[in-house]
């Protein structure tokens, strides 16, 4: 009762999953479930909308100023059966680079999408960090520490000539580990700046990796890049022919 769109059972949604509203300047999408995830997906992003923490109004939502956003559970998105929300832009009233922002109903910005360019060192660090839990969704596998991530970067980029040096030269190992640690700091800062976690939440390794995976910033599909020669070659150029 009291719904406009009905989704078949078994799609990973609550009985009352979300709200899609026409508002001034676009459409607003929010998760009204306290137990189930709801995602918005578009070109270059998939973001998990915040659950309602208590009965009342949603704490935030996805504002579509122009273009199309796909909405649904992870199952609906992965199986190509999401809801599609399209807003026709008006000439001269929007910037294509700023058409999507997570906002509160009162218009105050609370969250921006986090997108990592796959052709960057930061993406490789994030992927190596998340890899154990992408392979093991039960999250029972230990997460790698910075030296292990650095060694994985050597393996992925085919820098086998450097692996022996990494294993036998503590100074070289510390240098690469420090480089990885800087990228991890950037990931923590990006997550915090975009409000992807509560302000009082400690950004432990487990929390950061869970955010990266749950928000679709790093996905299981990204593991296929590890066997893509072109991508691996690009990463090799980034890591070993340029500065940190």
Characteristic terms for this protein:
35% helix; 244 residues; 7 helices; elongated; four-stranded antiparallel β-sheet; 2 domains; alpha+beta; five-stranded antiparallel β-sheet
SSE diagram, text form:
Elements: E1 18-23, E2 26-31, E3 38-42, E4 45-49, E5 61-64, E6 67-72, H1 74-78, E7 83-87, E8 100-103, E9 109-111, H2 121-135, H3 146-156, H4 160-168, H5 170-193, H6 205-214, H7 229-240
Antiparallel strand pairs: 1-2, 2-5, 3-4, 3-6, 5-8, 6-7, 8-9
Helix pairs in contact: 2-3, 2-5, 2-6, 3-5, 4-5
Explain what the structure shows.
There is one protein chain. By secondary structure, the chain is of the alpha+beta class. It has helices at 74-78, 121-135, 146-156, 160-168, 170-193, 205-214, 229-240; strands at 18-23, 26-31, 38-42, 45-49, 61-64, 67-72, 83-87, 100-103, 109-111. The strands form two sheets. It has a five-stranded antiparallel beta sheet with strand order 1-2-5-8-9, with no helix packed on it. The protein has a four-stranded antiparallel beta sheet with strand order 4-3-6-7. Strand 1 and strand 2 (26-31) form a beta hairpin. Helix 2 (121-135) packs across helix 3, helix 2 packs across helix 5 and helix 3 (146-156) packs across helix 5 (170-193).
The number of strands is: 9
Looking across the biggest beta sheet, what order are the strands in?
Answer: 1-2-5-8-9
Distance between the termini: 57 Å
Mean pLDDT across all residues, rounded? 79
Structure classification: alpha+beta
General form: elongated
Gyration radius from CA atoms, angstroms? 20 Å
The stretches of 5 or more residues where confidence is low (pLDDT under 50) are 91-112
In DSSP terms, counting alpha (H) and pi (I) runs of 4 or more, how many helices? 7
Q: Beta-strand level of the residues, as a percent range?
A: 15-25%
Main β sheet profile: 5 strands, antiparallel
């Amino acid at each position: 009762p009291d719904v406009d769109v009905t989704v078949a059972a078994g799609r990973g949604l609550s009985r009352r999953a979300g709200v899609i509203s026409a508002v001034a300047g676009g459409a607003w999408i929010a998760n009204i479930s306290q137990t189930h995830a709801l995602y918005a997906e578009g070109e270059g992003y998939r973001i998990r909308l915040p659950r309602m923490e208590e009965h009342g109004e949603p704490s935030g939502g996805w504002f579509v100023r122009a273009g199309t956003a796909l909405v649904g559970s992870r199952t609906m998105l992965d199986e190509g059966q999401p809801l599609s929300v399209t807003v026709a832009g008006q000439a001269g009233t929007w910037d294509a680079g700023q058409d999507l922002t997570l906002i509160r109903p009162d218009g105050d910005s609370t969250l921006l999408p986090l997108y990592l360019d796959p052709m960057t060192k930061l993406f490789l660090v994030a992927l190596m960090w998340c890899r154990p839990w992408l392979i093991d969704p039960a999250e029972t596998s230990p997460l790698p520490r910075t030296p292990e991530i650095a060694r994985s970067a050597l393996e992925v980029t085919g820098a086998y000539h450097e692996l022996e040096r990494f294993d036998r030269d503590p100074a070289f190992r510390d240098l690469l580990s420090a480089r990885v640690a800087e990228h991890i700091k950037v990931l923590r800062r990006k997550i915090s700046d975009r409000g992807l976690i509560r302000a009082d939440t400690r950004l432990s390794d487990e929390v950061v990796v869970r955010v990266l995976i749950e928000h679709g910033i790093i996905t299981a599909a990204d593991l296929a890049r590890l066997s893509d020669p072109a991508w691996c070659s690009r990463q090799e150029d980034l890591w070993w022919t340029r500065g940190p």
